[in-house]
Write a structure and sequence with these properties.
heterodimer, A: 150 residues, alpha+beta, 4 strands, globular, B: alpha/beta, Aspartate Aminotransferase, domain 1, 14 helices, 17 strands, 17% strand
Chain lengths: 150, 420
């Protein structure tokens, strides 16, 4: 059960049960929808910007514990960051969940997102962890496009 | 090892020896993450017995050559093996004639062939195609494509909350504009066995063509296309212990003869010139290009394997697995079985309150248990039952009661991991 407890850490289960910033944002500046057509996970990400700073982020959708908690923790991680910082954080997150087993994880940069370190042992679940981030990036980089991580 | 017994109808009157059957399937002695493999994803693809694996390698080692065109010994042998397999398929589904068996890649290709060829030549604006609410995407999308091209309309036969088709609605939908009914024999996501014979009879009384998607039926239910009365029957080799990449289409001769080719190429012609081409008779007309010869031959071996088993005992065993699984899974807190058809084969879908199907799949995999999670290529079914995805355990004749116990234990563990 070791890799399982590593994957389903308490913080992940907690965010899955009680997702933070789980709401439609009426006054959003940017919106994007992302989905995994093969598994049916779907998510809408809403962003409110103040200049270059992400003032607020929220999401709505349905999916597995990994995709839901990843979306929830993403929102709590990027609020207050600049667009550039958020995209950099995605890059670090992406590197972590696709890294080789046993390779070091940049703990300082990733903070609570380290909880998703266990995902790299489950290649079929990487797309679940990345879905919300891909969707956030789509929202930030364009007006509103459907995103897919398949 | 089970003996093969060619030419015989499905055997009855003996007990199925599960241990012997399991020893025919080499993969069943593999371990996964240090645990014995518990393979419960047979609706996606079945495992292969030694007899099929041997037939594949024997073909490539001793018989490989192209068919129908060589005059040399090897080509004659390969042609004979390929055509013998066609005969095995004919016998297995009790088709009247071998020419009514077309080798294709898969059930999907069989349906696309009919939709494209029959659809283009026999359907027009205002015609209606009836499909059921529980079809696999592969028995929906080809019809949508052809409907769009010819201006026909897709109509859906609804089901109730048990996952059973509503026959009164079916009768109401059958009408003068109905051109074709496309119907799944056994639902891949719900396990429902549909009353194909009765439904076919109703349609044929009105002169309506019927196609049956038998992908999930072929390994679980004896098939008799003459008794069912359907015009087309499609199945996949790999779901009935044969190789991937080979499938079968049965088509009534009268229809196949009138239908235009599906693909053009070698094999399917009588003569070719730049001023015009005439086509071969069925089934060659529908087998353009070099087919999956080894696959067809190995599918023949799979059929011989199936014919060697005592089928009344197989059916009893599979029924017992399903009933036991329904009972055991149904007793797990928070678990809901999706679809409760009276007549079920092969598969059970379920959801667990508070846990998404993908998380279930990942967790039980840690115990070596392979189940399918997701929408099973039946998104309209998921929508109907209001679930984003389900877990699905699907059985084959080599599965055991102990494996159902292991699945139930693993599902209890899922709840524990999620703190439920």
């Amino acid at each position: 059960m070791n890799s399982l407890t590593e994957l389903y850490q308490q913080v992940i289960l907690d965010h899955n049960r009680k997702p933070r910033n789980f709401r439609v944002m009426e006054a959003a500046d940017k919106v994007a929808t992302g989905d995994n057509p093969l598994c049916g996970d779907k998510i809408d990400v809403y962003v409110k910007l103040n200049g270059d700073v992400i003032e607020d982020v929220s999401f709505q959708g349905s999916g597995c514990a990994i995709s839901q908690s990843s979306a929830s923790l993403m929102t709590t991680s990027v609020i207050g960051k600049t667009v550039g910082e958020a995209l950099e954080l995605f890059s670090d997150f992406h590197d972590m969940v696709t890294s080789e087993l046993g390779s070091p994880i940049n703990k300082e940069k990733l903070g609570k997102l380290r909880a998703f370190g266990g995902v790299r042992e489950f290649p079929s679940r990487v797309k679940c962890a990345n879905l919300s981030w891909h969707t956030l990036r789509a929202a930030l980089e364009s007006d509103s496009d459907l995103v897919t991580t398949e | 090892m089970s003996k093969t017994d060619t030419g015989a109808a499905l055997k009855t009157g003996q007990e199925l020896n599960i241990d012997a059957v399991r020893s025919d399937f080499p993969i069943l002695s593999e371990t996964v993450r240090g645990k014995p493999l518990v393979y419960l994803d047979n609706a996606a693809t079945s495992q292969k017995p030694r007899q099929v694996i041997d037939a594949l390698s024997r073909f490539y080692e001793a018989e490989n050559s192209n068919i129908h065109r060589g005059v040399y010994y090897l080509s004659e042998r390969a042609t004979a093996a390929y055509e013998k397999a066609r005969g095995s398929v004919q016998r297995f589904i009790n088709a009247p004639r071998t020419e009514e068996i077309v080798f294709v890649r898969s059930t999907t290709e069989a349906i696309n062939l009919v939709a494209s060829s029959y659809g283009r030549s026999a359907m027009g604006a205002g015609d209606e195609i009836l499909v059921t609410a529980m079809e696999h995407h592969s028995n929906i999308v080809p019809w949508q494509l052809i409907a769009e091209q010819v201006g026909a309309k897709l109509q859906v036969i609804p089901m109730d909350q048990t996952g059973t088709l509503i026959q009164e609605e079916y009768e109401r939908l059958l009408g003068p504009r109905t051109k074709l009914v496309a119907l799944v024999h056994v639902s891949n996501s719900l396990g429902t066995v549909n009353p194909v014979k009765a439904m076919t009879t109703l349609a044929r009384e009105m002169g309506i063509t019927v196609l049956v998607d038998g992908a999930q039926a072929a390994a679980h239910i004896p098939i008799d296309v003459q008794d069912l009365g359907c015009d087309f029957y499609a199945a996949s080799g790999h779901k009935m212990f044969g190789p991937t990449g080979i499938g079968i289409l049965y088509g009534r001769s009268k229809l196949l003869e009138k239908m235009p080719p599906y693909q053009g190429g070698g094999e399917m012609i009588r003569s070719v010139s730049f001023s015009g081409t005439s086509y071969a008779d069925p089934p060659a007309k529908f087998e353009a290009g070099t087919p999956h010869i080894a696959g067809a031959v190995a599918l023949g071996a799979a059929i011989e394997y199936l014919e060697s088993l005592p089928w009344d005992s197989v059916l009893k065993h599979e029924e017992a697995l399903l009933r036991y699984a329904e009972e055991l899974l149904g007793n797990i807190d928070g678990l809901r079985i999706v679809g409760r058809p009276k007549h079920r084969a092969a598969a059970i879908s379920f959801v667990l309150v508070g846990v998404h199907a993908h998380d279930i799949g990942t967790i039980v995999d840690q115990d070596g248990i392979a189940i399918r999670t997701g929408h099973h290529c039946t998104q309209p079914v998921m929508e109907f039952f209001g679930v984003p995805a389900t877990g699905r355990a699907s059985f084959a004749l080599y599965n055991t009661i102990q494996e159902v116990d292991l699945l139930a234990e693993a599902l209890h563990r899922v709840r524990k991991v999620f703190g439920l």
